[in-house]
Protein backbone atom coordinates (compact mmCIF):
# COMPACT_ATOMS: atom_id res chain seq x y z
CA UNK A 1 0.00 0.00 0.00
CA UNK A 2 2.77 2.42 0.93
CA UNK A 3 4.64 1.70 -2.34
CA UNK A 4 1.49 2.48 -4.35
CA UNK A 5 1.17 5.89 -2.65
CA UNK A 6 4.82 6.61 -3.34
CA UNK A 7 4.42 5.64 -7.01
CA UNK A 8 1.31 7.79 -7.30
CA UNK A 9 3.12 10.72 -5.70
CA UNK A 10 6.11 10.38 -8.03
CA UNK A 11 3.83 10.08 -11.07
CA UNK A 12 1.97 13.24 -10.05
CA UNK A 13 5.25 15.10 -9.46
CA UNK A 14 6.55 14.13 -12.90
CA UNK A 15 3.26 15.18 -14.55
CA UNK A 16 3.32 18.55 -12.81
CA UNK A 17 6.96 19.14 -13.75
CA UNK A 18 6.36 18.25 -17.39
CA UNK A 19 3.22 20.34 -17.81
CA UNK A 20 4.57 23.44 -16.08
CA UNK A 21 7.90 23.33 -17.90
CA UNK A 22 6.11 23.31 -21.26
CA UNK A 23 4.25 26.50 -20.34
CA UNK A 24 7.34 28.57 -19.65
CA UNK A 25 8.40 30.99 -22.34
CA UNK A 26 11.47 33.16 -22.24
CA UNK A 27 10.55 36.85 -22.40
CA UNK A 28 12.63 38.51 -25.08
CA UNK A 29 13.84 42.03 -24.31
CA UNK A 30 15.20 43.17 -27.70
CA UNK A 31 13.07 46.07 -28.97
CA UNK A 32 11.39 45.42 -32.32
CA UNK A 33 9.46 48.71 -32.51
CA UNK A 34 8.18 51.69 -30.54
CA UNK A 35 4.49 51.53 -29.71
CA UNK A 36 1.79 53.99 -30.71
CA UNK A 37 -0.48 54.71 -27.76
CA UNK A 38 -3.15 57.04 -26.48
CA UNK A 39 -3.54 58.31 -22.93
CA UNK A 40 -7.23 57.91 -22.17
CA UNK A 41 -9.07 60.79 -20.51
CA UNK A 42 -11.22 59.93 -17.50
CA UNK A 43 -14.48 60.75 -19.32
CA UNK A 44 -13.52 58.42 -22.21
CA UNK A 45 -12.67 55.35 -20.13
CA UNK A 46 -14.82 52.25 -20.59
CA UNK A 47 -16.84 51.18 -17.55
CA UNK A 48 -14.58 48.17 -16.93
CA UNK A 49 -11.54 50.42 -16.70
CA UNK A 50 -13.32 52.81 -14.32
CA UNK A 51 -14.17 49.83 -12.08
CA UNK A 52 -10.55 48.61 -12.05
CA UNK A 53 -9.32 52.08 -11.04
CA UNK A 54 -12.00 52.50 -8.38
CA UNK A 55 -11.31 49.07 -6.82
CA UNK A 56 -7.53 49.53 -6.68
CA UNK A 57 -6.90 53.27 -6.34
CA UNK A 58 -5.96 53.28 -2.63
CA UNK A 59 -2.64 51.49 -3.28
CA UNK A 60 -0.13 51.38 -6.11
CA UNK A 61 -1.16 49.04 -8.93
CA UNK A 62 -0.24 47.99 -12.46
CA UNK A 63 -2.79 46.18 -14.60
CA UNK A 64 -3.25 45.23 -18.24
CA UNK A 65 -6.82 44.71 -19.46
CA UNK A 66 -7.97 43.80 -22.96
CA UNK A 67 -11.31 43.87 -24.68
CA UNK A 68 -12.01 42.85 -28.29
CA UNK A 69 -10.40 45.98 -29.79
CA UNK A 70 -7.86 47.42 -27.37
CA UNK A 71 -5.42 46.62 -24.60
CA UNK A 72 -5.43 49.07 -21.71
CA UNK A 73 -2.41 49.51 -19.48
CA UNK A 74 -3.41 51.05 -16.16
CA UNK A 75 -0.88 52.29 -13.63
CA UNK A 76 -1.93 53.86 -10.34
CA UNK A 77 0.26 55.44 -7.70
CA UNK A 78 -2.04 55.10 -4.71
CA UNK A 79 -3.44 57.68 -2.36
CA UNK A 80 -1.56 61.00 -2.24
CA UNK A 81 -2.17 63.96 0.09
CA UNK A 82 -1.87 66.78 -2.45
CA UNK A 83 -2.96 67.67 -5.97
CA UNK A 84 -0.70 68.35 -8.93
CA UNK A 85 1.01 65.01 -9.58
CA UNK A 86 1.77 64.03 -13.15
CA UNK A 87 2.55 60.74 -14.85
CA UNK A 88 4.54 60.56 -18.07
CA UNK A 89 5.08 57.61 -20.39
CA UNK A 90 8.87 57.56 -20.66
CA UNK A 91 9.18 54.52 -22.88
CA UNK A 92 6.85 52.04 -24.54
CA UNK A 93 8.02 49.44 -26.98
CA UNK A 94 7.29 45.99 -28.31
CA UNK A 95 9.55 42.93 -28.43
CA UNK A 96 8.94 39.62 -30.12
CA UNK A 97 6.69 38.42 -27.31
CA UNK A 98 6.08 41.30 -24.87
CA UNK A 99 5.22 44.97 -24.48
CA UNK A 100 7.41 47.09 -22.22
CA UNK A 101 6.13 50.24 -20.56
CA UNK A 102 7.99 52.67 -18.33
CA UNK A 103 6.35 55.64 -16.66
CA UNK A 104 7.61 58.48 -14.51
CA UNK A 105 5.68 59.77 -11.51
CA UNK A 106 6.36 63.40 -10.69
CA UNK A 107 5.30 65.31 -7.61
CA UNK A 108 3.52 68.63 -7.62
CA UNK A 109 5.55 71.65 -8.69
CA UNK A 110 4.16 73.49 -5.66
CA UNK A 111 2.62 72.08 -2.54
CA UNK A 112 -0.38 73.91 -1.15
CA UNK A 113 -1.25 74.20 2.51
CA UNK A 114 -4.52 72.39 1.78
CA UNK A 115 -4.30 68.64 1.94
CA UNK A 116 -6.58 66.97 -0.57
CA UNK A 117 -6.62 63.22 -1.15
CA UNK A 118 -5.89 62.39 -4.77
CA UNK A 119 -5.37 59.09 -6.58
CA UNK A 120 -3.06 59.69 -9.56
CA UNK A 121 -3.20 57.09 -12.32
CA UNK A 122 -2.74 56.79 -16.05
CA UNK A 123 -4.66 54.72 -18.58
CA UNK A 124 -2.79 53.92 -21.79
CA UNK A 125 -4.66 52.47 -24.77
CA UNK A 126 -3.03 50.46 -27.56
CA UNK A 127 -4.34 48.22 -30.31
CA UNK A 128 -5.35 44.82 -28.96
CA UNK A 129 -2.41 42.57 -28.10
CA UNK A 130 -2.19 39.20 -26.41
CA UNK A 131 1.46 39.79 -25.48
CA UNK A 132 2.62 40.04 -21.89
CA UNK A 133 2.92 43.57 -20.54
CA UNK A 134 6.14 44.19 -18.63
CA UNK A 135 6.20 47.20 -16.30
CA UNK A 136 9.79 48.40 -16.12
CA UNK A 137 11.21 50.64 -13.43
Short description:
The protein is of the alpha+beta class. 23% of the residues lie in helices and 35% in strands.
Instruction: Label the overall shape.
Output: globular
Q: In total, how many beta strands?
A: 8
**Secondary-structure element string:** HEEHEEEEEE
- Which percent band covers the strand fraction? 35-45%
- Gyration radius, in Å: 21 Å
By secondary-structure content and strand pairing, the structural class works out as alpha+beta
Strand order of the largest sheet: 1-5-6-8
Number of helices in the DSSP assignment: 2
Provide the low-confidence segments as ranges.
Answer: 6-11, 17-22
Oligomerization: single chain
- The share of residues in helices is 10-25%
Overall pLDDT level: 84
Structure description:
The protein is of the alpha+beta class and 137 residues long. The chain is built from two helices and eight strands. The protein has helices at 2-22, 47-56, and strands spanning 33-34, 38-39, 60-66, 70-77, 86-94, 98-106, 121-127, 132-135. A hairpin with a 3-residue loop joins strand 5 (86-94) and strand 6 (98-106). The radius of gyration is 21 Å and the shape is globular.
Q: Which helices and strands appear, and what pairs or packs with what?
A:
Elements (H helix, E strand, L loop, with lengths): L1 H21 L10 E2 L3 E2 L7 H10 L3 E7 L3 E8 L8 E9 L3 E9 L14 E7 L4 E4 L2
